[in-house]
Specification:
single chain; 298 residues; Rossmann fold; 8-stranded mixed sheet
Length: 298
Amino acid sequence: MMLRSNGINLEVSQQGAGAPALVFLHYWGGSSRTWRHVIHALTPDFRTVAIDQRGWGRSDAPASGYALADLADDAQGVVEALDLERYILVGHSMGGKVAQLMASRRLRGLVGLALVAPSPPSPLGLPLDVREAMVGAYGSRDSIIATVEQVLAPNGLAATDLEVVIEDSLAGAAVAKRAWPLCASQEDITTAVVQIDVPVIAISGENDRVDPPEVLRRELLTRIPQARLHVLPDIGHLSPLEAPDDIADLVRAFALATIDAGASVSPVGKDVIRLRCPGCGTVLAAAARYQSSHPPHD
């Protein structure tokens, strides 16, 4: 459905029921469809809200307004229009940086922040010529395939998922394709994210060539001290497509921990946390995957 937010029309897909709601923000080049496998795994338990950010998918593509604050205002408007009383922001890459800025505003109803292969709050550490080359990465089918194979998902994607990536990347507005690498990725929100006061998880692929774990440890964890990093072995930057079940398990476990009646949480060594169902006490499937790549406060 289309929702009016921040002066434009945004495509918003809703599924499922239950609280907290999960609000999904996609990566540069994607759309709400990037999350479809993750959402499919979560909708039996949660209400999900996935947004096509401006310039992508079926949302409007205005001629200007692609700064992080604009994208955050768009998503905040959707949350307010849907009157979400309790929700978790789930942001991937560019969407992760947008989600960080939103969370720094301490919005009513926000109870958690899940960052999937997020762009950190500091400026993207790439020289201008490399960022200018990024603008053309989504210019043709061949260039998109090369970008996926060489950068985004070196281990490959399922054929149907690759086709979705190609379609979404080609459909992006030219202004949106330029805005992230040349401008928004260079915004520095490090002083803002210290205001984040909700639980935070960050999920990274071991083989991520865009925002690798070591960058997140240095640039994100040092600025959001309550964040915990979970590294997925042999996964690249497109983890919602490469490892959707793992992402869904981690987000589900994180969401359950925010519920007032919540799941009981018991540490089992420094790297594994087991979450038990408050009703029957069964260890959740997510437990085996809820792994931290470093000690607390690393």
